[in-house]
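Example 3.2
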Amino acid sequence: MEKTTIYRKPMGVNLFEEELTVEALSAMGNPLERLSKKVDFEMFRPILEDTLLTKDVKSAAGRKPIDVVLMFKVIFLQRYYGLGDHQIQYQIIDRTSFRQFLGIHTVDEVPDEKTVWACKNRLFDKFRSCLNSLGLSFNECKIIDATFVEAPRQHNTHEENKQIKEGNGSSLWQAEDGNSEKEKKRKAHKRAHKDIDARWTKNRGENHYGYKDHVKADKKTKLIEKYHTTDASVHDSNVIEPLIDEQDKGQDLWLDAGYVGKEDVVTKCGMKPVICEKGYRNNPLTDEQKKEQP
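Structure, written as tokens:
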């Protein structure tokens, strides 16, 4: 005997579900739909193809590359919504509005996180080359600094956090023999939402969870020339050498007070350390000291 209920029954599969979803998003005010109408991303195609496509292809065999404008729009979504490489892949699969914006209709068309990472790096290298060709890298003085990139805070058990810290996070939330299909899907869904590379740290009494972007910039133009990413627990002063290049030798390197005690590392790399002074409560920097800061 069928059990009666006071609630609505779930509706069956609708062949027009995707079209109905798109219409519903549009009616609610889909910002990506409005953006697509305002911005013609095709204007970027010539420079993107010049940068990302391999010129000397000996054979037409093999898998064709993903459209360069599509990849550029993926990177735009990352920046707009603050998503990492892994999360952008997951969110494109999960969100109808993302797929509509990109013109993607099947999961097989979604670029994986490694493809996204490689694309961003090639674009950054091209940007750096353009700066050099235009004479915008003055090679007089450099600045190195770091900033926190917050990640969604995880709700893990003590044992799960212990395994993550020990570098065994990839073994967590894996399907096991004997698990039902429902349990396998649950674990896969949970694993997709877990960030096992982010770390906790404390700075000036505030807790931060996520990553750090360490950058080297030209002191005059403030344009970023090189970057290095670590988890948030890595101290700024431990990421000096990876940022310094051969052409930087002999120049001044401006650093904030967090790099005090690392002058020998800068000197070893052939640069001259300039540590900025730091103000304290009831003893702020003078106007003259502020003028000397970069």
